[in-house]
Amino acid sequence: MAKLNIQNQVKVAEYLECYVAREGYVILQKDYAALEPTVLAHLSGCPRYQELYGPKSNPNQDVYLYVGSKFPQFKHFLDYYDPDNPTAEGRDECKKLFKGDRAICKEFHLACAYGAGINRIQQTLNNKEIFLEREDVEKMHQEYWQLFAEVKKYQRRLIQEKNRRGGWIKSATGMPISISEDKEHDILNTMCQYSGHSLLQWENYFIEQEKKRQGIEMNPWINDYHDEMMFEVPIEQVKEGIQLLIKTQAQLNDMLGWDIKIKGDPELHLNLGAIKCEDYEYSEEQKLFLKELIA
């Protein structure tokens, strides 16, 4: 019998929309933008990651089109998507025309980022019904790590740190992370996930202090959801809650002092389905209700 995992629920709108705010309340939600890659960009200093997530990065970047545009197999991306100076129109047109090719680049990038080798990458692609010749996977793997060579160097530094410290490394916030020998290949992902989660916990601490100080009712709904937080807020305190999240994110960035800022925009919702399902549509009445709350 399968166990319920609230951190990894099936994205079925009809099911998720059963999770609703109480009468007189709405859900105030914030999802960090690319939290773990932002952490990696700061820690590794990789110039490619800086292009994607750094302080001077173009907001129209798409990491999967960016990666694909560097491979000869996907040079047709360049007809629409300029990796050095992308436009929103070109990015969106490329995503629409080459959805399948972008999916290949997405699965490949994620597999590499999780430390997968060639065999695992090919199996991952096959499981997604993406079938490439092994020699193509090998070549893409080689080209990928040439592209992100500084990330690979950072990975080696982490392994050296783990060996020097006797099996542990320090997170971005200074907390110890234990790394077993059989998980050494996943050390990058472990560092980024642990560090990202620590940042979310720090902001939750700031939120707790600030809401008490201001007298704002923000009930934790699912306030530790990977890189996302959700609170149940009374309708009459919506605007105050939004400003509080803006303030605590600024506090987090001030505490870190990084050139790269942690980003995330507060949003209002009525149920979990609207938050987790990209194609979810509110009724016109619901849209108007939410719009009026922040007017």
Would you kindly provide a brief summary of this structure?
This protein is α+β, with helices and mostly antiparallel strands.
Task: Specify the helix fraction band.
Answer: 40-55%
The global form is: globular
So what's the CATH class of the domain at 1-36 and 186-295? Alpha Beta
DSSP strand content: 5-15%
The number of distinct β-strands equals 6
- Unreliable runs: none
Number of helices: 13
Question: The biggest beta sheet, please?
Answer: 4 strands, antiparallel
- Indicate the radius of gyration in whole angstroms: 21 Å
* First-residue to last-residue Cα separation: 47 Å
Helices and strands, in order, run as HEHHHHHHHHEEHEEHEHH
What is the level-2 CATH architecture name of the domain at 1-36 and 186-295? 2-Layer Sandwich
Mean pLDDT figure: 94
In spatial order, strands of the major sheet run 4-5-1-6
Question: CATH fold name of the domain at 1-36 and 186-295, please?
Answer: Alpha-Beta Plaits
Structural class: alpha+beta
How would you describe this structure to a colleague?
- Strand 4 (219-220) and strand 5 (228-234) form a beta hairpin.
- The protein has helices at residues 13-16, 35-44, 47-53, 63-69, 88-97, 99-113, 118-127, 134-147, 149-165, 187-214, 238-256, 272-276, 284-293; strands at 25-31, 168-170, 176-178, 219-220, 228-234, 266-269.
- The protein has a domain at 1-36 and 186-295: 2-Layer Sandwich (Alpha-Beta Plaits).
- Helix 2 runs antiparallel to helix 3, helix 4 (63-69) crosses helix 6 and helix 10 (187-214) crosses helix 11.
- The protein has a four-stranded antiparallel β-sheet with strand order 4-5-1-6. A two-stranded antiparallel ribbon has the order 2-3.
- It has 13 helices and six strands.
- Helices cover 53% and strands 9% of the residues.
- The model has no long low-confidence stretch (mean pLDDT 94).
